[in-house]
Predict the structure.
Amino acid sequence: MKNKKGISFMITAALLLAAGCGNAKGNEAASDVAKAETQEKVSVETPGTEGSETDVIKLGVTTGLNDHYIALVGIENGFFKENGIDLQLVEFATGIETIDATTSGQVDIGKAADFAIVNRIGNTDGNFKGKLIAKFESSQNYALYADPEKIHSIEDLKGQNIVTNPGTVLDYLNALTLEAAGLSEDDVTILNVGSGQEAVGLLAKKEASAYWANGNGAVKVKEAGYEKVIGMEDLGTSVDDYYVTSDDYIAAHSDRIGKFLKGVKESEQWITEHQDEAVA
């Protein structure tokens, strides 16, 4: 496993104390949530104790990416449970889906790329009810895969069909790619899809020629016979990923957020210190 930049925790005292600094009405609302909180507690048995309680957190992860892997490591090694968190994972194909699930309450916390977050904020007319609670990583894990019979360089994209998932970082990467190739959107056909699975389907049927992919998506694209043309490093760009949650969740469960992030940090440290086991 490649070394990652350490998780940069950006929680401020103001954010974590937000739940306790509101007006009387806000405190009453938080109190109501606290009363209901007991329904989310799970009794667990641990060695040497008669049982303890953990708070449930539903975490939205992107299937096959680092956030998914780190969460699994933390669960398997008990880092979240040791911090009083029963972490339950809900998988999504894209960051934009994770943001929507977070702000709608389907999950409590999610991870998304900066471009997806900015895009979603820009499309909610100021009604985006969420905040970034921690920076997860900066990465260059996307690569452009293309039909090797048609495309050997980005200049060969002219006249070809390129796949994107609107509102995601793929829009940004496609724009940078065309700029680097000296092309415009008029020189290609942009095919919009709603998921990575749909994109792979188009590629498998040879209805598209190129697609930026990462994680499990990249594996499936290569299995379909597509080859890497360039990576993000060739365009001099990277993606910053952040953990996101709703304003309501921050107000009601700031303590859980701190426990969750402590579990993430311990999981990341374990991976760094146990490279061989982590890869296995």
Observations:
- The radius of gyration is 21 Å.
